[in-house]
Amino acid sequence: MKKLSVVLLMVLGSIASVNAQTETSIILQGHFQGRSIYVQNPFGSSGVGFCVTKVTVNGDVTTDEIASSAFEIDFANFQLKVGDPLEVEIFHKLDCSPKVINPQVLEPKSTFQTISINVGDDQVLNWKTSKEKGKLTYIVEQYRWNKWIKAGEVEGVGTDGEQEYKFKVTTHSGENKFRVKQVDYTGRPRMSTAATYIDTEVKEVEFYPKKVKKEITFTQKTKYEIFDSFGNIVKKGFGDKIDCVTLKKGLYYLNYDNTNDEFSKN
Predict the structure, then answer these.
(1) Over 202-251, what HEC string results?
(2) How many CB atoms lie within 10 A of CB 134?
(3) Residue 118: which domain range?
(4) Do residues 102 and 7 share a domain?
(5) Structural domain count of the chain
(6) Which of 54, 80, 106 is at the close of a domain?
(7) Residue pLDDT tens, the chain, 266 long
(8) CA 81 to CA 160: how far, in whole Å?
């Protein structure tokens, strides 16, 4: 009896090993967006039987009919909510490859609408949104130096209903503009309206000297960028001084506060 058990275990292990050698899988990960996945399912190289052998959703085997040249993975039976984590594994024979027609349906799409956006006297950007249908990062941007520049990021909630967000911003003298945007799998940004804030506390920043040997000094701390004569950015940061010792001699362009200027390195 003991010998029979050992032999049976060896046979089962052998079968499992053969299955492992003749089967592989495609794994799709993302979040449920309310749409089905469609798969093209060729025959195996032997011409007998279709390529896909099994499909699981979050570890559970689907009841979808997969024995056809094309089939749908329908998530209706899994009681998923939009934004729920999702892992789909498509098991198939080694000698063939199924094709997932629309894998992007597991990637969130930016659908938010801006209810309100403003900057408070505490220099915090507040915005309220609705109609989010997937977790995407909000990129906070500030209009400075005649362009929109990234100020930071806030993770989106990704579910419907009203959502509220906050982000501490750094203002410059005069009129400030801020906005938020999301970029989804399409690569096209979706942007909010701009919030305007006039900072009456921050004074205009000046710098010296215009002919630099070692460092630039600002009259107060500010964001800055330095470009060389070819338009390459060579330094950027926030502070009241810039170490210029390593810069080569020549003309440079300086963005600071909300101003553009230039200096020469001697």
Answers:
(1) CCCCCEECCEECCEEEEEEEEEEEEECCCCCEEEEEEEEEEECCCCCCEE
(2) 24
(3) 113-199
(4) yes
(5) 3
(6) 106
(7) 444 343 333 433 443 444 457 889 999 998 888 899 999 999 988 878 899 999 999 999 998 899 999 999 999 989 898 878 899 999 999 999 999 999 999 998 899 999 999 999 899 999 999 999 888 999 999 999 999 999 999 999 988 899 999 999 999 999 999 999 999 988 999 999 999 999 888 889 999 999 999 999 999 999 999 999 999 999 999 999 999 999 999 999 999 999 999 999 99
(8) 11
Region at 129 (left for phi over 0; alpha for psi -120 to 50; beta for the rest): beta
Residue count of the chain, please give it: 266
Are both 147 and 236 inside the same structural domain?
A: no
Model-level pTM?
Answer: 0.73
Residues 95 and 161 both lie in one domain: no
Give the N- to C-terminal CA distance of the chain in Å, as an integer.
93
Domain containing 146 — which CATH number? Answer: 2.60.40.10
Same domain, 71 and 132: no
CA distance 71 to 60: 18
Tell me whether residue 242 is exposed, middle or buried, using C-beta atoms within 10 angstroms of its C-beta: 0 to 12, 13 to 18, 19 or more.
Answer: buried
